[in-house]
Amino acid sequence: LNTVFAIVCGETMKILWFVILTCISCIVGEKILAIFPSASKSHLYSFEPLFTTLATRGHQVVLVSLYPLSYKNKNFTNIVINTGILKKRYDYSNLTNYDPSIQYDNSIVANIIFRDMAEIDELVLELMLQKLNDKYEFDLMMTEIFNTDLFLGFAHKFQTQIILLSSSSIEPWGTYRFGVPENPSFIQYANSYQKNLVSFLDRLRNVYDILYFKLYYEQIHIKTLNQVAKKLFGEDMPPLEELIEQSRLLLVNTHSSFKPVRPLSPQVIEVAGLHLKALKPVPKDIEDFINASEHGVVLFSFGSIVQSSTMSESTRRAFCDVFSQLPQRVLWKWEEDEMPEKPENVKIVKWLPQRDVLGHPNIKLFISHGGLLGTIEAVHNAVPILGIPFFGDQMQNIAYLAQIGVAIQLDFVNITKESVSYAVKTLLNDKSFKERAVKVSEIYHDRPQSPLDTAVYWTEYVIRHKGAHHLRTAAVDLPWYQYLLLDVIFVLLLCCITVVVIIFYVVKLIYKTLCETKQKQKIH
């Protein structure tokens, strides 16, 4: 008995010490500033679990965003900036105004991403500076890499380390700061409307797209941001380029299971699926509707921005005519109270918990606009997709899934009853799409850590190692001509030309000598 008692006491003390040490490690947390000025809620929701988990683990997290989070914790503060300052110059919600040509014109896209957002960011920054006064102290700053470099001024203001976050693929103007290769022969521009890089013209257009946005950022946008930064942060504000080079880590919302493989540097960590939380019960009316369908359910949702209820009558009729012929039921996110001539097997709802609905085993097909979060949710649950992309990275999201046999892509402007019927029935009846979706989902899930655990680990890794400078590749510090080996190529080319010239003149001299010798022999 004494021996047993000693063992029990020993194990109890070990557990007690573990709890004490855990508590101590939680108490000694970092002060983290997270800034999310994006007008898109999905950008914030992509990384919400990271911020809340860091707070749960004892770090003091201050999140500045345009939208409030419901999470409550003594270590978590959410500063919400008034969203009334946002300006909508391009309305993607109304499908009657949809113009696909916008996606093809780089000047329009660049104006949206850079010029228009820079104006909004300046207004947001003015309000943030009023909230984030000198009473705050921070050790680490986290913000997006998309078009928010202006806010890196806070890293200078509070003298913090920098971790960047990407809610989509890495943009061309973000690769160089982490030494990520950007070879346009096989790495496609993230927001390209092209489906793949098959022909010479495809690759030529891809080179143009990547160079256009990279040069627009470096030659125009960053100069504008530097002027605004000096005006708002003060004249002692260093160039944003210097702060950009101090970025220590990039957490990117991609994974090789559903995105084309590309080389990454040690500072870039893929965390796709970070936003996925444990499944919750869906509303009872939706659950009853799904459970009552013997042949399964088709989920139709264009996300939180695009409103399917604004589509033309002819397009709506094309969908409804096809749905009325299906043995499956259709759950349709429709923003109006009524739908004209709604088929009996269709249920319309103004809102639905998309992630939880997609997790229901009776969902057989997802008709989607191809937003990245919805795409990840479908891959997570092995649901085939009928993709109808509109803008941004949606084209590439759907194009690659179609390439690997998980989706079929349709162009919204060319929607007909015949095209919808073919796509829907093929995806529902051809078992290869479901089988491939299951395989892709298995690859997606087969990771040593969950996306959230991975993001938390690497965030704290940067904290533990004071910036983790050892992860930084030398490529970041090289001038572009050295990175591309143009100086070496130039010298080698010069050497080759020199050798050729020398050979030419030697041959010429020999030829001339021989000719002169023959001429002398003729004279004699």
TrEMBL record:
Which GO cellular component terms are attached? endoplasmic reticulum; membrane
Asked if the Swiss-Prot or TrEMBL record annotates the protein with the keyword Glycoprotein, the reply is yes
Keyword Transmembrane helix (UniProt): yes
**GO molecular function terms listed in the Swiss-Prot or TrEMBL record:** glucuronosyltransferase activity
> What does the UniProt entry say about where the protein is found?
Endomembrane system; Endoplasmic reticulum; Membrane
Instruction: Identify the Pfam families for this entry.
Output: UDPGT
What this protein catalyses is: glucuronate acceptor + UDP-alpha-D-glucuronate = acceptor beta-D-glucuronoside + UDP + H(+)
Record EC number? 2.4.1.17
Keyword list, A-Z: Endoplasmic reticulum, Glycoprotein, Glycosyltransferase, Membrane, Transferase, Transmembrane, Transmembrane helix
Which InterPro entries does the protein's record reference? UDP-glycosyltransferase (IPR050271), UDP_glucos_trans (IPR002213), UDP_glycos_trans_CS (IPR035595)
| Ranges annotated as spanning the membrane | 15-36, 480-511
What is the membrane topology listed in the Swiss-Prot or TrEMBL record?
Single-pass type I membrane protein; Single-pass membrane protein
Query: Record's family?
Result: Belongs to the UDP-glycosyltransferase family.
Q: What is this protein called?
A: UDP-glucuronosyltransferase
**Organism in which the protein naturally occurs:** Clastoptera arizonana (Arizona spittle bug)
